[in-house]
Amino acid sequence: MIADSAPIVSLRNVRRDYALGAERVHALQGVSLDVERGDYVAIVGPSGCGKSTLLNLIGVIDQPTSGTVTISGKRVDAMSDREATSFRLHNIGFVFQRFYLMPILSALENVALPMAEAKLRREERDARAGELLAYVGLSSRERHRPSELSGGEQQRVAIARALANHPALLLADEPTGELDARTGTEIISLFQRLNSDGTTIVVVTHDEDLANAARHNVHMRDGRIVNA
Amino acid sequence: MLAVLGVAVATAMLLDMVMLATGMRESFRELLLSQGFDIRLAPKGTLPFDTDATIPGVSAITGVLRSNPDIREISPVLGGSIHIPVGARDVSAAVLGVDPTVQGDYEFLSGRDITTPDAIVANDYLLKKLRASFGDTLNVSAGYDPQTRTYSGQRKLVLTGKARFIYGATEQPAAAVRRETLEALGGGARRDRASLFMVRVRKGANPDSVRDWIATQIPGVTAISVATAIQEVDQRLSYFRQLAFILGAVSLFVGFLLVTTLVTVSVNERAGEIAVMRAIGVSRAHVVQQIVIEGVAISVVGAIIGLALGLVTARYLNSILSAFPGLPMAIDFFLFQPRAAWSALGLLVGSGIFAGIYPAWRAASLPIAESLRREAIA
Predict the structure, then answer these.
(1) Which ipTM was obtained for this model?
(2) pTM for the complete prediction?
(3) Among A3, A13, B135, B188, which one is most buried in terms of CB atoms within 10 A?
C-alpha cells in the first residue's frame, strides 16, 4: 500500500543513452525527480535537452539505460512489453503535439478506444466517452470525425481520450505546439481545470504560457535537471 | 484504389486458372453423364471416334451384353460421313447411325425423328448449308470423288427433323439416320459393325464392375466407364492443368506482393499513429490484428471485384477456346463452379492474412519512443 503522500513519479539517477549512427548520445545523465500526487509540472528547456526522453521514461514507453523509475509506487523501468502496455492503459494518459486521432473513428469512438482495449462494456464506455467529451466542451461534436474538427477540438478529443481509463497521471508532450495562440490558451485552461479537479499532470513544453500555468517548472539542459 | 484493382486483376486471373484447371474435366464429365450412359465400348485400343475403326459383330456383342442383368440399355452407334449434292456444290457432313429409341447422341428438336429407314435428321449447320426444309428429299451418298465429281452408294432420304448433336463440334454439319440405313449406304463393308456402343447400367449397379465384366467377355473392345474416360481426359489435359497451376500460383504471388506492399506502405505512413496507439495502451496483438484485418479487407474487396472480372474474362476466353476445331461444342474450358470461386476467394483471403503478417509484425515491434521521436523530427 502506497501512502497518498508518496510521490506519484519518482526517478532516481536515471540515465538514457542511445546510438545515433556511430555516435552514442547521452540523452539523460543521472536525472532524479519526484512529482507529487495532484501536482502540475512543466518540464522546460532547449530542444534536445532530454525533455521528451524524460517524459517517455515516465510514460513507460521507453526504458532507462540505468537508474530506477517508479510510478504510483510500482517499478516500471524493467517491465516486459506486455506489462508496460497494461500499465500504460490503466495508469497513464498521453497527449501528443499532433493529436493522433484515428481518422476513421468519430470523436466518441476515439475517446472510447482505450476503454475498449480495457474491455469495458460498450454502454459503459459510450457513456464515459460522452461525459469526457462534455467535460472538454465537445458534446455537440461526438459524431464528428477528426477531419471535421478544428485543431483545438482535435486536441480536446485527445485529452478526453487520455482521461478515458481514469489515469493516475496525465502526460503531455508539447500539447499546444500545433495550435494557434487562442486555441492554445483554451487548452491551457483545460489543463488547469483538470489539475484543479485532481489530475496529476506532467507537460513538456516550449510554450511559456503553458509552463507558467503549471505549479512547478523543471528546467533541463544537456540531459540534466538544472533547476527544479 | 489502384492496389485494390491490382488485387482484383490477380484474383480474376487466379479464378480463371482454377476454372481452367477443373473446368474442362468437369464439363467433360457432365457431358458424358448427360444422357445417362455409363459405359462406352470402342474398338480395341482407341477412344470413341478417335479413329475410323469399327467393331465387327454388333448382333453377337449385343447378345453377350444382354446376358448381363446389370445392363439395362445398349445403343450401338455407327459413325461416318455423308455427301449431299446441292446444285453444283457438294455438302459433306458427319453422320451417326443409331437406334432412335435408345440413342444418346443427339437431342431431337423439331419435326419427326428417324422413325423410318428413309428418314434423316440434321443439325442447324447442315440445314443452313443444304437450304432444305422438312419433307425435302435428299440424295445422300456415303462416298464422293472430288476429281470425277461422282457419288457412290447414293440413296434418297427424306429430311424429317432438326436435332442438336451433343458430342458435335462447333459449326460441324451433322446428321443422323437409322443404323441400318447407314450400313446400307456403306455397302456390305460396314454391315453389322459399330463405331461405338453406349451402355446404360441398372440403377444401383456398379459401372466399373460391369466394365470389368465386359472386358473379360468381349476382349475385342475397349470398355470405358465415365471414371476411366475422365482419367484418360485428365492425362491428355495435364498440360492445361500445369499451365493453369503455374499461372494461378503467379497470380496469387502477385496478389500477395501487392497486398504486402500496400500494407507496408500504409504502416510506414502511419508509424506515428501506431506508436501513439501503443502508447495509450493498445496491445501489440491488437495492432497486429488491426493490420492483418486491413490486409484481408484489401484482399476481400479486390477478390469480390476480381470474381466478377474473372467470370467476364472466363466467358470471353471460353468462347475463343471452344471454337477450336473438332471439340464437342458442349465442352467448356472455363466452367464456373461455386467451389472454384470459393477456392479463389479462400486463397486470396489466406494470402491477405499472410501478406498482413509481415507489416503487422513490423508495426507492432516498432519502438514507441523512437517512432515518436522520428515522427517529431519529420
Answers:
(1) 0.89
(2) 0.65
(3) A13
